[in-house]
Each structure stands twice: as structure tokens, then as C-alpha cells.
Design goal:
Helices cover 95% and strands 0% of the residues. It is an all-alpha fold. The radius of gyration is 52 Å and the shape is rod-shaped.
Length: 121
């Protein structure tokens, strides 16, 4: 049983309850939007982290490539020295043989000239 004096107090409580329910709904909506914003920011951070990992991986690949090129340059320098030494050895050998051949031809020519002189006398 309600009396006429209780009715205004009950109406006020119901209005207050409705106001609190409305505020609670607004807070719930605000919280959901904040959660969505945080999830979006987390996704962006993940994307940036993946980009950084890719960049770091690319930089490591470049460092490895530079090291490989340096190693190959050392091998090429060594090969160049070896080829240069071999070319000098071949040139010296050919020069020595040419000197021997020239000496032999001079000796043959002198012998031929002596023989011709002897024959002419």
C-alpha cells in the first residue's frame, strides 16, 4: 500500500534511477569507444614494429652484402697479384729464351761467315 505522501518520493527515486541508467549507458558507450581507440592504436604500434623489423632485417642484409663484397675484393686483389706474378715469370722466361735464340743465331751467323770466308780463301 502506498500513500499519497509516498508517491512523490517513489517518482523521484524512479527518475533518479532512470538518470543513473542513462549515465551508465553513456559511460558504457564512452568506454567502448576508448577500447576501440586503444585497439586501433595497438594495431598501429604493431604495424610500426613490423616495419622496423623489416627495416632492421634489410639493414642486416645490406651489411652482409657489403661484407661479401669486401671478401670478394680481397680475393680479386689476391688473384690480381697472382696473375701479375705469373705474367712477370712468363715474360722473363720468354725474354730469356729470346736472348738464347738471338745468341744462337749470332753464333750460327758468325760460323757461317767464317765458313764463307774460309771457302772464299
Amino acid at each position: 500500500m502506498t500513500t499519497s505522501g509516498d508517491q512523490p518520493g517513489t517518482d523521484r527515486l524512479e527518475a533518479r534511477l532512470a538518470s543513473l541508467e542513462t549515465r551508465l549507458g553513456m559511460l558504457e558507450t564512452a568506454l567502448r569507444s576508448e577500447v576501440d581507440r586503444v585497439e586501433l592504436a595497438a594495431g598501429q604500434v604493431d604495424s610500426v614494429a613490423e616495419g622496423l623489423q623489416s627495416t632492421i632485417g634489410g639493414a642486416r642484409n645490406l651489411v652482409d652484402l657489403v661484407n661479401d663484397i669486401g671478401d670478394r675484393l680481397i680475393v680479386l686483389h689476391t688473384l690480381e697479384d697472382t696473375v701479375s706474378g705469373a705474367a712477370r715469370t712468363v715474360a722473363e722466361e720468354i725474354g730469356g729464351r729470346l736472348q738464347q735464340e738471338i745468341g744462337a743465331r749470332h753464333a750460327d751467323q758468325e760460323a757461317l761467315e767464317r765458313a764463307l770466308d774460309a771457302f772464299a780463301d
